Amino acid sequence: MAGELQNPPGVYPPQAHYSHVARSGNTLYISGQLAFDPSGAVVGIGDARAQARQCYDNLAAILAHYGGGFRNLLKTTTYITHWGYRSLVAAARDEVFPAPPYPANTLVVVQGLAEPHFLVEIEGIAVLD
Fold first, then answer.
1. What predicted TM-score, i.e. pTM, was given to this entire model?
2. Among 15, 26, 69, 74, which one is least packed by beta carbons within 10 Å?
């Protein structure tokens, strides 16, 4: 089965050469989401929690485009630029996932992201019903 590559509405289109979503059957591989609102403005400069929340909002918009929601998100990988952001990002995650079941997650501390003002990036794998 051939895959589908798409940049769904509701999230700022990537300015680099990639797609937000690679779909194969009912599986969505969602590129790392940064703290861009739909108009392309950066949300939460200097605020890791606000940036994480915007990343989750972007994931929600992508999932909704395909008729899904956070219950379909099975795996996330979260990138932060400083270990001190861990609790702030966890607080944003708790807003999105207030109770089990939780998706699998990997947390990675990196030296930097696409631009210096980005503190958080979250990618995901979802399986649609």
1. 0.96
2. 15
